Amino acid sequence: MRSTIEIACCVRDENTLRRLRQAIGMRGAHPVEVSWSDIAYGRQVIDSCSVLIYDLAPHDRRTSRVIGQFRASVPGGPILLYVPQVPEAGPLLDQYAGRPGVLVRLQCGGDFESRRLQDDMGRLFDRMCGHQLEKMILNSVPGLSDRLNECVSVAIQMISSRNGSVGLSTATVAGQMEITLRTLQRAFDHRRFPKPKEFLTWITLLYVTAVACQSFQSPNKVAKRMGMHKTTIDRMRRRLLSPERLESWRKYSGPGPRRFELVFSAFLEACGLDDNIARNQASNELSRIDWGQEYNPLCTDSGIAISNPSCLRLAL
What we know:
By secondary structure, this protein is α/β, with parallel strands linked by helices. It contains 14 helices and seven strands. The chain has helices at residues 14-26, 36-40, 61-73, 89-96, 112-140, 146-161, 170-177, 181-189, 196-215, 219-225, 230-240, 243-251, 258-270, 275-286, and strands at residues 6-10, 30-33, 49-54, 79-83, 102-106, 298-299, 305-306.
């Protein structure tokens, strides 16, 4: 089992690589230096990588093959295009900027660059967390229609890529899906699901809790970084969780996956799963997490198998 998240670094400039190594290492991850041909031709060196940092070299049609092959190898995996300020990069940036899961930054150099890279690493890790959350939801909720699959994907992409937002709205999600609000509402009418607005509140609460679990920060601190007031995330918990689960939330303080398991199992119940099935499914999904060490499960009173929470890593 991997001890750290591995990030493929396809960057030619040695000074830039040095800054990347430092920024990635400070996040507890491991940089894997690769060439564009390693990725384009699917060589095994990238098999363990969850994220790509790429300078768009060789700045021609082969660039599309590099990005396409990584997308095929790691569906939904985040990409940071960390691009030198050269004229030939311009058309490629126009092509890829704004795509889901793609973060674009120009290489600037200077003392400020290291701090900016640290911030970008944080955004990449948040997007990795969103990618993992999407997989967990799609694996756990049976019988999701294509429309609802798309709703989950769009909602998580929106919340993981925006800054200073106070949450999702049904209108903005429907607009991103290029459907009417009524069409989105009808997709929920055919299932024993929460109403669309409540469903998106669940997605927000799940995402904040997952990022907090992965980054060893409090959910309130994560919510504040996303532009949400502390009382907003508190109100979401009080509205969505039962009194029993709220009491367990207060009990499970500190790092580790217990709070996320609690919220995720409650979400599965809200989607129509039986209580015991929901708890077991949440436990099964969390057992897929890479703990950063040999996995020796310890059964807790919440029914979830956990190991040393200080070694938690999301396995993509």
